[in-house]
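Objective 1.3, modelling of assemblies. Example input:
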Amino acid sequence: MSRGEFLGDFEQLILLAVLRLDREAYGLGIQQELSARAGREASIGAIYTTLDRLEQKQLVRSELGESTAERGGRAKRIFTVTPAGKAALRQSIGATRAMADGLKGLGLA
Amino acid sequence: MSRGEFLGDFEQLILLAVLRLDREAYGLGIQQELSARAGREASIGAIYTTLDRLEQKQLVRSELGESTAERGGRAKRIFTVTPAGKAALRQSIGATRAMADGLKGLGLA
DNA sequence: TGACATGTTCTATTTTGTAGAACAAATTGG
DNA sequence: CCAATTTGTTCTACAAAATAGAACATGTCA
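Predicted structure (tokens):
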């Protein structure tokens, strides 16, 4: 009943954001990246729930960073994508790409 | 609480399959296309449920075709993607692409 | 130390994804 | 013409993913 190796759409976006932010991926930063690049406005709750789920599936790992010297700059939980996470991403993106490839009249050439 | 214009991953694949099959898109055909191109094995029930939801959202339309002269060849319910469906697809695929673009070390160049 | 800023967790709900049996309609052989 | 077979769709039920927002925690600074 599971979808096997395939990721949900939001899971894909989160994983991509974490990869993009490379070593500086944490909740709020991911939220901003998603908004800025993908135009997807997600609540902070939605993001953490998904990150937790991805960690359960061992597609990301997290570790506590250090607090910065900014006002309110408490320690961040930094996320990284595991090899399994990359593989899952490849498969999911590959599947969509295979379906989209060569399709015309959609303007996504 | 709605995700606005964004589609779920399976919805995306279904819409792409319908576009691909162009005028010949119906339940079983979509199932085969998904399996062959995307490597995604979905039950026929999963496919129809999703098609029904997409129709509710007016992202696809369906009409009853004619029965063919094959053994058991009863009338097919033929699906087409509406302009709104194409727009939603563009947006969803565009968002993922924007996030994936320029990412290295993932082998999906 | 209390006001404020940054960051994460918790709780609850809606939407999507999933399967498979039941049902419907067509063909064909006897 | 009707039983068996084939193609196709609908129905029912449940699991997983997406979503939000308040509550909570921790840090700075005046």
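The two ends of chain B are 34 Å apart (CA to CA).
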